[in-house]
């Protein structure tokens, strides 16, 4: 009888261990493909290293394409061209076997992630970390209003493909870039394709995670700037962390992973 009791205890213990292992395995990110989009003037994966490692440690496949606003490219293609480049990264992940596609970005990459969510269906989630580049916000409007008028005139006169000097702004720091009027308008026109509120409104019911540091200027715009319009899925979440614009992806990496596991 004692032997039967011990055997029963062993069987129960093995079953419990199996169930626990099953729960642990089901909680990882195998089958997820994550496209990580870098910010303005950065390189692929810049400021995203901690998150990249955290995602890969959980079994997710990761792609980090170089986008038209990288340091090396700096506005060599339009916003819509960038969407096509993200398509290529998504296709690569799907071809490699990813079943759940997440598009995540930092700063201007967060803007692009929201823009992609507004234009494509079948995504598992959109993650916007320290969203940046807000052509509709007062600071960038003030810096670029005259240039927008000039760019529109150049396009109307048939000079839309002529490289020209234009003003830009990154986290309050003014600088000058060279771009064609066509590309510049696609990225800086307040009513154009890069407007985050406009794109958030156009998003379908895909889960949206918006993470912002409490010392990042965009935090003062609040939830209603763009998150509320894009949060059509009940699993969407707006998170404030103790951080700044640049360190948000690293500091939020565990939150991002946990949120993706919950989907």
Give a quick rundown of the structure:
By secondary structure, the protein is an alpha/beta fold.
The number of domains? 2
Strands, count: 8
CATH topology of the largest domain: Rossmann fold
The low-pLDDT segments are: 1-26
Structure, explained:
The chain is of the alpha/beta class and 263 residues long. The chain folds into two domains: 1-29; 31-136 and 191-261, Alpha/Beta hydrolase fold, catalytic domain (Rossmann fold). 43% of the residues lie in helices and 17% in strands. It is built from ten helices and eight strands. Strand 1 (32-37), helix 2 and strand 2 form a beta-alpha-beta unit. The radius of gyration is 22 Å and the shape is globular.
Tell me the layout of helices and strands.
Layout: H1 2-26, E1 32-37, H2 49-57, E2 61-63, H3 79-95, E3 100-106, H4 108-119, E4 125-129, H5 138-156, E5 164-170, E6 173-179, H6 181-188, H7 196-202, E7 208-213, H8 227-230, E8 237-241, H9 248-251, H10 253-261
Parallel strand pairs: 1-2, 1-3, 3-4, 4-7, 7-8
Antiparallel strand pairs: 5-6
Helix pairs in contact: 2-10, 3-4, 4-7, 5-6
Key structural traits:
alpha/beta; Rossmann fold; two-stranded antiparallel ribbon; 8 strands; 6-stranded parallel β-sheet; globular; 10 helices; 263 residues; disordered N terminus
């Amino acid at each position: 009888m004692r032997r039967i009791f011990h055997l029963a205890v062993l069987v129960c213990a093995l079953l419990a261990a199996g169930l626990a292992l099953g729960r642990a395995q089901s909680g990882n990110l195998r089958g997820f493909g994550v496209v990580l989009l870098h910010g303005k003037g950065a390189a692929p994966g810049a400021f995203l290293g901690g998150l990249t490692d955290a995602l890969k440690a959980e079994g997710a496949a990761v792609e980090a394409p170089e986008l038209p606003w990288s340091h090396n490219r700096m506005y060599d293609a339009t916003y819509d061209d960038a969407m096509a480049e993200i398509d290529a990264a998504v296709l690569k992940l799907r071809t490699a076997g990813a079943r759940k596609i997440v598009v995540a970005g930092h700063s201007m990459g967060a803007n692009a992630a929201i823009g992609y969510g507004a234009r494509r269906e079948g995504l598992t989630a959109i993650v916007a970390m320290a969203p940046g580049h807000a052509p509709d916000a007062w600071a960038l409007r003030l810096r670029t209003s005259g240039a927008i008028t000039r760019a529109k005139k150049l396009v109307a006169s048939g000079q839309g493909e002529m490289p020209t000097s234009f003003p830009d702004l990154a986290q309050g720091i003014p600088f000058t870039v060279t771009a064609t009027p066509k590309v510049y308008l696609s990225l800086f026109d307040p009513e154009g394709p890069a407007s985050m509120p406009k794109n958030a409104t156009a998003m379908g019911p895909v889960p949206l995670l918006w993470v912002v540091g409490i010392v990042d200027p965009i935090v003062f715009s609040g939830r209603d700037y763009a998150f509320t319009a894009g949060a059509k899925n009940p699993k969407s979440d707006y998170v404030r962390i103790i951080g700044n614009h640049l360190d948000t992806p690293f500091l939020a990496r565990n939150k991002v992973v946990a949120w993706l596991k919950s989907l």
